[in-house]
TrEMBL record:
NCBIfam families: PRK00481.1-3 (NF001753). This is NAD-dependent protein deacetylase, SIR2 family. Zn(2+) binds at C135, C138, C160, C163. GO terms for molecular function: histone deacetylase activity, NAD-dependent; metal ion binding; NAD+ binding. It comes from Halapricum desulfuricans.
Length: 256
């Protein structure tokens, strides 16, 4: 059997498993967003070769929110892209799968907000999102562009209109502890899935790295869709080494 035939056969078989499963949960990582032009954060050509991590440190935000926001304005185009990145075929395929009743939730390591932009409704963002800001006092969220616009008009740092608290990017900064809520929810979802899809993640970073094992301990079937091998590929029932922007649309089509 050629490699292509075996990928097609695995796709058909996985599609049947998706159609049969009661609860399907997908975990996504950087590999899902690279086709949208979002570079990965680590490694060669990664974001942290281009930007100084210290500008994204929680200590910097806490010590000097005004300076932190002035830096954000300088980085607005280069880092935040002016909100111009678009979902790709992989994001759209997952949104289609949910609309068709075959996917219960997307848990993502990505902070680009592209799953929601593609139409996915149940999305757990483990590391938060760059598309929103959050009041440090009351937790109220608003789109990042609104905070940028106010900062650009001189409101430094921009503050919550409700309580006056300082607004912070709704993303986990360096040195900031992970919020418990999304991690707990992700573990709960993994635990009650009967099919768990790990897509475009190298599964090297916690808490995401622990989710496939959590799902398998609860009896879920595990499928990995990634260009390269992951630490759990050997014990996955399905191991599709493929480009996610091709594999996922093919999978959705096969599910029907
Ligand atoms: Zn507030």
């Amino acid at each position: 059997m050629s490699g292509i035939d075996s990928i097609e056969a695995a796709t058909e078989s996985l599609a049947a498993a998706i159609a049969d499963a009661e609860t399907v949960v997908a975990l996504t990582g950087a590999g899902v967003s690279t086709a949208s032009g979002i570079p990965s954060f680590r490694g060669d050509g990664g974001i942290w070769e281009q930007f100084d991590q210290r500008d994204f440190h929680y200590r910097r935000f806490e010590a000097d929110p005004e300076g932190f926001w002035r830096d954000r304005l300088d980085l607005r185009e280069a880092f935040y892209g002016g909100g111009e990145t678009e979902p790709n075929a992989a994001h759209r395929a997952l949104a289609d799968l949910e609309r068709g009743g075959h996917l219960d939730a997307v848990v993502t390591q990505n902070v680009d907000g592209l799953h929601r932009a593609a139409g996915s409704e149940t999305v757990v963002e483990l590391h938060g999102t760059n598309r929103e800001v959050e009041c440090v006092e009351c937790g109220h969220r608003l789109p990042v562009e609104a905070a940028f616009d106010r900062a650009a008009e001189g409101e430094l740092p921009p503050r919550c209109e409700g309580c006056g608290g300082v607004l912070k990017p709704a993303v986990v900064l360096f040195g900031e502890s992970m919020p418990d809520g999304p991690t707990i929810r992700a573990h709960e979802l993994a635990g009650r899935s009967d099919l768990f899809l790990a897509i475009g993640s190298s599964l090297q970073v916690q808490p995401a790295a622990g989710l496939p094992a959590r799902a398998q301990r609860s009896g879920a079937t595990l499928a990995v869709v990634n260009l390269e091998a992951t630490p759990v590929s050997d014990r996955a029932e399905y191991d599709l080494r493929a480009d996610v922007t091709e594999a996922l649309p093919a999978l959705v089509e096969a599910v029907g």
